[in-house]
Amino acid sequence: MSTNTATRLVHITHASGVELSTYLVFDRELSRINQKLKTLRRYLQQYTSGWKKRVEFADLLYLKGNFQEAIKEYRLVLKRQPQLMGIRLKLGKLLQLMGREQEAIEVYKDALLVTTKKDVKYYISGAIASCQGDKLEAIWAFESATSLEPRQAAHWLALGQMQMELENGVAAGRAFDRILSLNPDDIVALIASYDALIAVGNLGKARKRLSRAQKLAPDDYQVLKRVVEYRCRMQLVWEEPGKQTLQLINAALKLAPDTADTQKLLSDYYLARGEWEQGVEVLQQFTEQHPNHPNGWYYYGCSLFGIGESQKAGVAILNAYRLYPNDCEIYRLLSEILPAAGRLEDLRPLLAEMLARFPECWSMWATAGRMLVEQFKEMERGCDVSLQGTQLQPRLPDAWFRHGRVLALAGKHQKAVEALEQGWQYLEEEWISLSVPAAVWLLESYRVLGNTAASRKWLAEAKVRSQQLLEFDPATAYYWQRRALEGY
Q1: Which of 161, 246, 320, 463 could form a disulfide with 298 if both were Cys (CB 3.0 to 4.6 A apart)?
Q2: Is residue 30 included in any domain, yes or no?
Q3: Phi and psi at residue 422, in whole multiples of 5°?
Q4: Does any domain span residue 343?
Q5: CATH of the domain at 324
Q6: Could you tell me if 194 and 177 are in contact, meaning their C-beta atoms sit under 8 angstroms apart?
Q7: pTM, entire model
């Protein structure tokens, strides 16, 4: 990973048969892939035992998204050169991406027998645990690998990515920072760090990371995607700034024209301009062309829900769920849409299923708890369920904030302010987007409790914090400003 790498978005046909997309890291100097593939194919037909050229050939197939053929070529390489650890790890990861976890585990287990390096053994053990769905064991293994070889960026990247899967942006950010301490211009780490900073609400530092990544790799797909998302959030969709945003979207469309992520960028642009029909139509057309792509249905459901089309949104998000019930974000959106679509009883079994599928994700417990309180009026049970999130991440501010919100919805305002203030103790000054709703919830609960002094204190805090948020997310800032002033 370095400034000489970039990312590429490609389609994957998952073992379940659905269409997914994934990001691959590749050499930025790489060009004319199709021509090189033809040349290498002719060479290998003539010189069948040339393993170095076969590795190059397999790598190009991998980057093109021809994964089945790439797997076949990597296996041929390993038959001739079983000591090539990098190829074993790449093959295992590729199988894992395709949902062929058992095959990936076998590849990783074989790799354990080949390597003598302790840090690599821990790294492979983490990969096996990841395939088995044991995220906590994977984190322990990756942490062990980093402690033995702290200058190995791949170990830190794996650790950070797994922490992100556990929704711990704080720990993930620390891991990505270690990579950047080794190489401040690592594009992959800059992008990953940006996402972790957004997760904890450190929008100022996140913007700096994104600006650095854009300067180093302006044509990188993941950089383009995040820049467009930021510009739409900032309403840079009119006149000259709007033209620049559209140019960036067109650049992304050239890199990955037929993907849900790119079509969503175009949809976001139209929606930010208030052109609801066009924004929704973009994603509707994508689902018609790619009916087996869960992300397409997910984004389509989001857009419909955003414009108040709850019934249609319910159909869309259920399509996403039926195609790929392994994504916590799909469950989260299901929880929001189904009640609005008048399908409340469909939600109840899905909440239990969600917690069974993602027991280690704190926000799933907070979401389930809120739904039990808000929709099913099961106050005690909902609060108990929400509490589990704080036990999973006891030092994460947002876990406490979300639990506090559930307590407030249940009418337990004294306990709510205790939970909210507990989370505030773990909040860092720069984590703006987390602090704004927390301050508003505190003022609301103190107002209900009749504590005017405390309520006014948190009103002042909410005003300051929402003013800071204006610089990064105007629409959200205005929403919380209006809400804070209700009743005053």
Answers
A1: 320
A2: no
A3: -60, -45
A4: yes
A5: 1.25.40.10
A6: no
A7: 0.94
